[in-house]
Design goal:
Strand order of the largest sheet: 7-6-8-9
Distance between the termini: 62 Å
Largest sheet: 4 strands, parallel
Number of strands: 9
């Protein structure tokens, strides 16, 4: 019925079916259906592995697509199930050839082409490119394939706020988009290519940072907030109408759940404004890489409660640490007609340094 070896036996065997993951799962919260929880999906994966369910079964494909891949189940799991890897393995088996969702094909093609990535970045005028000397590699800024095209101000802000940050001219995609969308091998290959340059890689994209760290090692990858704090918190405050700005944060799922980075962005914000914890800040915003493209209605269902909280809090700024979240939250705030301004953390810090 199915090809053998879809899942890593060690990964699949880690789950003890305790159910601690259920309350943390966004799709389980939406449906109350065990099949739409990590425990339910792992039971499905085991059935696929035992050749009891076809990997291309309609219900199996639905669960492979319905999962946000946010990895919120991982921090609460007592047995350390690497669920993120398992859902990637499921999609790697399901989203092959003509079975790959057509809506993401242009995105994958763009992210695979260095020429297209560079052309888009140059057109949008991202941070000035520099070549790191082999004798003094320092920290290297990863531009990000879509971030440099959609939000070029982020890389400029990162370079302006972290001393000595280098921007190599020849970098391509990190491969996170591929790994999360049914092409693990290509995703790992691109990450290794990016990791060939010396020094640490500083990332302004949580999803990219988590993917890179999984492939080339956590010691080689640092989030922007972590790198910034190494140089000291931002000096100065952001004032609105004579008071400290009220600033909230939307976590990046993979940065928080994959790398365990949650405190550093908050520490940066607290130094320059009144930090306001947004209820559910650590919950997925529904962007989830390509999820908002493939499952728009479900994406907005995940987002709905978050927008209600933002309306109640009436923040001056909402800070994000991932381009997908930035795009999602900008659109949502505009639709809700909130006065809150959505900025990447680097852009917020740059306001202090101006």
């Amino acid at each position: 019925m199915t090809a053998p070896g879809v899942f890593d036996p060690a990964d699949l065997g880690t789950c003890i079916s305790c159910g601690f993951c259920l309350p943390a799962c966004p799709t389980y919260k939406l449906t109350g259906d065990e099949a739409s929880s990590p425990r339910g999906r792992i039971a499905l994966m085991r059935a696929i592995d035992a050749d009891e369910v076809n990997v291309f079964d309609v219900a199996a494909r639905e669960q492979g697509s319905f999962c946000l891949g946010c990895r919120a189940c991982e921090p609460v799991c007592p047995s350390g199930v690497p669920y993120g890897r398992l859902i990637e393995q499921l999609r790697d088996a399901q989203w092959t050839g003509r079975r790959r969702p057509w809506r993401i094909l242009p995105l994958l093609a763009f992210a695979t082409s260095r020429k297209l990535i560079r052309a888009a970045g140059l057109l949008r005028r991202h941070a000035k490119r520099t070549r790191a000397a082999d004798s003094d590699p320092g920290d290297t800024l990863m531009l990000g394939c879509f971030e440099r095209a959609l939000f070029p101000a982020v890389s400029k802000a990162a370079v302006a706020t972290i001393p000595g940050l280098r921007v190599p001219a020849d970098q391509g995609c990190c491969g996170a988009l591929h790994a999360h969308n049914g092409d693990i091998a290509r995703g790992e290959e691109l990450a290794r290519q990016l990791g060939e340059r010396p020094g640490r890689i500083v990332s302004t994209a949580g999803g990219c940072a988590a993917h890179l760290a999984a492939v080339i090692g956590r010691d080689r990858v640092v989030d922007y907030s972590e790198a910034l704090l190494e140089h000291g918190a931002a000096a100065g405050e952001i004032l609105v109408d004579g008071r400290r700005a009220r600033i909230g944060l939307q976590d990046s799922c993979h940065l928080r759940n994959g790398l365990g980075v949650a405190g550093a962005p908050r520490a940066v914000i607290e130094a320059i404004g009144e930090y306001v914890e947004v209820p559910g800040a650590g919950d997925c915003c529904g962007a989830a890489g390509t999820y908002a493209i493939l499952r728009r209605a479900d994406s907005r269902r995940v987002l709905a409660n978050k927008i209600s909280e933002l309306a109640r809090l009436d923040l001056d700024f909402l800070v994000v640490v991932n381009p997908g979240c930035q795009r999602q939250m900008i659109g949502a705030v505009r639709r809700a007609r909130l006065r809150t301004r959505v900025l990447h953390l680097a852009e917020l810090v740059a306001l202090v340094r101006q």
